[in-house]
UniProtKB/TrEMBL annotation:
Keyword Acyltransferase carried by entry: no
Pfam family name, one: BPD_transp_1
Alphabetized NCBIfam families for the sequence: HEQRo_perm_3TM
Record membrane topology: Multi-pass membrane protein
Lineage: Bacteria, Pseudomonadati, Pseudomonadota, Gammaproteobacteria, Enterobacterales
Highest taxon listed in the record's lineage: Bacteria
Major localisation: membrane
Species per Swiss-Prot/TrEMBL record: Rahnella laticis
Function, as annotated: Part of the binding-protein-dependent transport system for glutamine; probably responsible for the translocation of the substrate across the membrane.
Protein name in UniProt: Amino acid ABC transporter permease
Domain (ABC transmembrane type-1) ranges: 19-207
Length: 217
């Protein structure tokens, strides 16, 4: 089977489980990051300075400190909230919160694409600032930001191996376990790399498709 040793073949289900954990972690963290990113972007665009300050502080904190430190902080804080012993929860929260700061900046940069006339029209219709954001501004920003957001989620995928430090058996950690047992690092790491490509290639293809579509438009 592609020149794989018997020990590595026997470990394929273990690697498959690690791949599944990576997919789950990536999807959940990406969903959290897109939700947080929209909220933080909205806060940064508010006129009231406390909201703006909070949004900017969040972005600065998440972007200015190592993701692995954030993961440890979340992991050791959860037991104080009665949620200890859940490495997947800690990893989703930490990675999603970290990525959310970058998503917020992507959206904030692209918010200038929404013209002043559209904002004024929304206010003329009696929409509040919150409703204007969610029904007029936000959908347009998301559409314009799709290629950059998909790139961000690709980076998020490559951040998931950090979850191994809190004992979540994602793909990289599963590979390390198999290597320790089989002493066949080359074959195992090639399979691990193939697993990440299996997840990343659809995202990369989506970016190229969206960029090509925008050029045609």
């Amino acid at each position: 089977m592609l020149g794989l040793s018997e020990q590595v073949i026997a470990a394929l289900p273990e690697l498959g489980h690690g791949l599944l954990m990576t997919v789950i972690l990536t999807v959940l963290a990406a969903l959290l990051s897109i939700v947080l990113g929209q909220i933080v972007c909205f806060l940064q665009l508010r006129r009231a300075w406390p909201w703006r300050a909070f949004g900017r502080l969040y972005v600065s904190l998440m972007r200015g400190t190592p993701a692995i430190v954030q993961l440890f902080v979340v992991f050791f804080t959860l037991p104080r909230l009665g949620l200890g012993g859940h490495p997947m929860l800690a990893a989703v929260l930490a990675i999603g919160m970290n990525s959310g700061a970058y998503v917020a900046e992507i959206l904030r940069v692209n918010q200038s694409l929404v013209t002043k006339g559209q904002r004024e029209a929304a206010r003329t219709l009696g929409l509040s600032r919150w409703l204007t954001w969610w029904f007029v501004i936000n959908p347009q920003i998301l559409r314009a930001s799709l290629p950059m957001l998909v790139n961000e989620f690709t980076i998020l995928l490559k951040t998931t191996p950090l979850a191994s430090v809190v004992a979540l058996t994602e793909l990289t950690y599963a590979g390390q376990i198999v290597i320790a047992r089989t002493y066949d690092a080359t074959q195992v790491l090639l399979l691990v790399s193939a697993g990440y490509l299996l997840i990343a290639l659809p995202l990369i293809g989506a970016v190229r498709h969206l960029e090509a579509k925008r050029r045609v438009a």
